[in-house]
Amino acid sequence: MIRHLLPFVFLLTTATTLLAQSIPLKPRPDAFPPVDAPDGAKAVVNMATTVAEMSDWDRYPTYETYLAMMQGWAEEFPTLCHIDTIGTSVNGRLILSMYIQVQTVDDLYRPEFFYSSTMHGDEVTGYVMMLRLIDTLLHGYGSNPQYTDIINSTRISINPLSNPDGAYRTGNNSVRYAMRYNANYVDLNRNYPDPFGTDPEDVQQPENTAMINYLSSHNFRLSANLHGGSEVMNYPWDSFTSSENPHPDREWWIEVCKRFVDTSRTYSNSHFRDVLNSGYIEGGDWYVIPNGRQDYVNYYHNCREMTMEISSDKTINSDQLPEYWRFLQHSLVNYISEIHTINSSVAIETTESESSVLRFYPNPTHDKVFLCNMPTEPISIYNMQGQCVMQLPACTQLIDLQSLSQGIYLLRSGSQTAKVVKR
What we know:
Layout: H1 2-22, E1 47-48, E2 60-61, H2 63-76, E3 81-88, E4 94-100, E5 112-117, H3 125-140, H4 145-153, E6 155-159, H5 164-167, H6 206-216, E7 220-227, E8 230-235, H7 250-265, E9 280-282, H8 283-286, H9 293-300, E10 304-311, H10 321-337, E11 360-361, E12 368-371, E13 379-382, E14 388-392, E15 398-400, E16 407-413, E17 416-422
Parallel strand pairs: 1-2, 5-6, 5-7, 7-10, 8-9
Antiparallel strand pairs: 3-4, 4-6, 8-10, 11-12, 12-15, 13-14, 13-16, 16-17
Helix pairs in contact: 3-4, 3-10, 7-10
């Protein structure tokens, strides 16, 4: 009986495979910006006008409530966190980040992590997720072993809202009619310097100038930018398909994405399936975009950044926010810990002694780098194709990279290695 059914099983499997291959990917929200009514106009959006009204996390905060929440945490946990003012928007609203760290003697040798959200103002699910993540980490320190270990081993910066003018387009009291763009009607995710293409069409916006300055003043080694409109982990490059130019860290990214999606699906198996069933994709394989933040950060800041599309609707009903937190919480927390899975060859600082780590500045650089500790062995510099492009003697302290083209290079001296980005 089973033998007679085999041809039919084969035909069914073949037809299913062909059908799956013929179904186009869900359009990337970045690909064709909407011109109709904002998502928020269709959603049930309840707002919290006080911090107390955010206690059940089933509302979006007004702008003033958001500021009060950030200030409240800074005052409640003065030894664990402080507020960084990244900058201001076109309309003068604050772009803030909560910087979480414990002050210890090895503080400077702990790697820095960065989360940010809602550079598209109408993609506000991540806005509330980041606020709740701040609250969870701070209140869990000292009582939850995982959160305590993460804060003790990592410096964490969380920017919940990077486009406040877009989110609060009609005023500070509601995100219901939020829009994608900033107040100058510019898409901030088409407004970063493009390492592979042309300059942005629009003049660099103040929100992005502030973000670039913030990134340059820190040494972030892993980051994520939260979006909405789909549910998929989008890893670099955005500027190329994987067949054209695969990211050198592609295999690592795939493993990280698998862990994120698998953890999330243990709490809700229906999510992260609207683009690919795997739940992750290389950005350019979904849709090639220019002047995006993801490629800018990866290329120019020696930092691995991915784009997390975390909700199929850009603005979800406010009473759905607790459910999204339930299936995202552990994945979002675990992603911070992924910073410790990055191989030391990409210049992650550790708590090892100063002499065991190759340190230099500035990075990225336009021309020269200065070594902080004099290497006792010759230095070799390799491009991403593994070709040696420069050799220098031991005890070199100044390296001139002006003759090299823009790109990522690997410095090696004996057993010490580190990445440098040439702008």
